Amino acid sequence: NDQDAILFTPAGNSPVQQVTASGGPASNTTALDTARGDVQHANPSFLPDGRDFIYTAVGSRAGGATAPTGVYLASLDRGRPAKLLLEGASQAVYASGYLLFLQGATLMAQPFDLERLELRGTARPLAEGIQTAGTGGGVAGAYSVSETGVLAFQTASLVRSEFAWFDRTGRQIATLGEQADRVDVVLSPDGSRVAASMVDPQMGTRDIWIFDVRRALSERFTSDPSDDFAPVWSPRGDHLIFSSARSGRIDLYQKSEATGVEQRIDDGGLNLGKFAASWSPDE
Asked: Which terminal residue of the chain, N or C, has fewer Cβ atoms less than 10 Å from its own Cβ?
């Protein structure tokens, strides 16, 4: 703001913090509401007065999947509780009398009264299919607006591809499944199945899918609203380890293909993103 205060979120499980532009220790400006299921406060943005600001709360009352729970209004002035402005929305900014925000992958605008600090009228869509980052429940969207209301944004574009078998001479001999936006392709140890991360075009996040090579059938393996990606097969081919952002940071999860039971792999509380590289032969 014009007083050289900087708002930021330092980690995937942190509230909004404040530090001066000249440096020094940072302090918490918001407080995670654990009863509400908050795991992170993100995307802080000052209103024109330089004291009030808005941010996105990420979490889940169920304690499982994480997603934007809403846009909140807070202040640098101590003692004033945070106020919910928009339920289920994320990444809000103010410009030219409007609050712009993401509802899923749709960029919305709604009149905002700076005197009363309240929304007015009804929200209307400005653009659909905004490019969003998968991690953190899709709270980071590719858009920016100037103080005069000039808007720049990027829409998502799917990278269509298909699985293809090639022989050792480089000749294509078969394909598997329809075209889709897929990454992280891994064959099961016996070669009978393929696991891959596939992007949901509506949510902009990935889920793990399993493809049966012999029957040419596919089945969704994970269905959490958060980003699930980078699968690794167990040596027996009955489990997968994968990375997921459902806890507000990237953790490792294990899931049985037979029972469907999922569990987070305990890491001793390391506050770092985790990605599986391989599974040892002795399991």
From this structure: C
